[in-house]
Batch of 4 targets.
Target 1
Amino acid sequence: MSRMRRNWTPEEKAAIVLELLREESTLAEIAKKYDVSQQLISRWKAEFLSNMSAVFDKKNENIEKIQREHEDEKEHLIKKIGELTLDVDWLKKKQVQISQMKKKGR
């Protein structure tokens, strides 16, 4: 019987790797505690160590700035879509009213 593949959030992975880096428990103990293979935890640790300099990288600030700008633009576009939807609905309503007036005038 095969096991379902478990998806770990980045927060969970970080917590497990930090626990390993504290060296309060062995890799085997941590793997057993979280029911994760030792190889997978070792891979997470290697990935963490290779990417930890990114925390202090100024490029991350640029990424966050771009994300904020993207969110602002998204909010603006959602607002604009709402306005245009109201305009279209109003025009459809007026079109129906005008066509009814023309029918009565005949």
Target 2
Amino acid sequence: MGSPDYSTFLDLATRYERVALDTTMVFTPFFDQLVPFPLEERPRLRDLGQAGKILLGTDFPNIPYEYADQLQGLVRLDLGDAWLRAVCWHNLWSTLGLTGSHAL
């Protein structure tokens, strides 16, 4: 997501077709204490996620919090179930060119 330059990285993902961002570390209580995601950028986060440009990212097991915290942080964004499915599953499959029964 480009922390702490969230807006700049969202600009890049918007401008360039082959640029996508991942959610590693952001939206967790651990990271929100350091550099929280700006609330005014949530509409762009929603739109880019639905456009296939935001991917679930994690450095598990090399992260300073529980893996579930990453997923709970995404849920707390309250961007909807379709957004969560896109970010946590469909966007990666699409990026890798995978289709069919694997892309539930």
Target 3
Amino acid sequence: MAAAVVVSAGDVGPAWAAAVLTRGERVLATEVAAGVVRVPYEPGSLVARDGPLLAAAVGGLHPRPDVLLLAAAGRDHPRRAGLALHLGADLDLPTVGVTDRPLLAVGPPPGPARGDTSPLRLDGAEVARWVRTAAGARPVVAHAAWRTAAEVAAGLVLASSSGVRTPLPLREARRLARDGRARRGRP
């Protein structure tokens, strides 16, 4: 069972995190946590800003997921430990980051077919992979994070994408977090 978690927030103030647990194409459980973001957005420092709210949303999921997908970097980070890695360590849960582009790593783009991947390296180590989740669509980056390797991250992202660009758990978590923000106003 895979889960994803996403935060919807402005720069500082009210925020909502949503977690979605899936098995294949089926949503098994959801959780929305409301809180306040006290630290402004700063690239590379999301753990202090979003970590506690994300952990609260994941903690409300039952049953516990086998792996967690986040819209965040893992080892492709200036300190080799982005939000996906930190949250996984805090929750003792394998994690994979999924982003539109690498943070620091470099590598050639993947081929044009669904399932094509190519390595992204930082200081010679493979820290992520480009993954083509749908034929002709822009690839996403699958980040190795807590207890995952780049190859495993790419496989999980591909398996949960079902031929569309963004993996289903992340799409659903993003929708729920935005809906929570729109409906609930201030936490």
Target 4
Amino acid sequence: MGDKERESAPPPRRLALFASPTPRGQEVAAVVRGTAEWCALEEADIVVVIGGDGTMLDALHHMIRTGRVRPVYGVNAGTVGFLMNRYHRSMNIIERLHHARSIAVSPLAVEAVMQGGDTHCVYAINELSLLRETRQTAKIEISVNGRVRIAELAGDGVLLATPVGSTAYNFSASGPILPLDSQMLALTPISPFRPRRWKGAILPDRSRVTFRVLEPDKRPVSAVADQTELRNIAEVRLAIAREREMTLLFDPGHALDERIVAEQFAH
């Protein structure tokens, strides 16, 4: 992934607003809206996202689907706001954007093959997780770069996380937190039963990972790519989509890489 921090954000030009529909999101949006001139999302050079991390993921996925990804500056009007900047009622959005630092991140390209043979291609900015659909333990074969590394993982499932997503579900599943510039992916089992001692792996982000569901009729598995769920999975193939690189903007001293380091020392 290389050096993720660049000298500065591009000078503010045409701005669009993407706000959470929650009461708090709309309240903050009303304040921010009065600090600048705005245009339609498809005409913008920079997108200001107001809400929580879920709203940020919604905005990024919307831009990936439409094929025009612009730099994004988040304003926290949610709970955690890991991908967002702090909100102050007196904030000047133009000044914030002028001084913002940029960080480039790339999502996972997910190619999911269903039990019926259909294929769905989606993207995961945080992680792709495979989860058992019933009370039956999932059984999953894991391959890396065409070589089988785990012939049969038995448990609730498995996930592959980017550095951006390493502090989310991956961390809750006892996976490692990855620095943004680590050029790594976290492969983490979810409540594993066998092999009992396997705690996961850290892989170079050039790796291609394949999950194959074993005994799918008896042990159905779903795939969740951020907020997109696909059920009755046969196989999932994953790789970093460098051609879909995205730029996140942060206030100086409030950058995402610093938050990732700080998260490892949180009590």
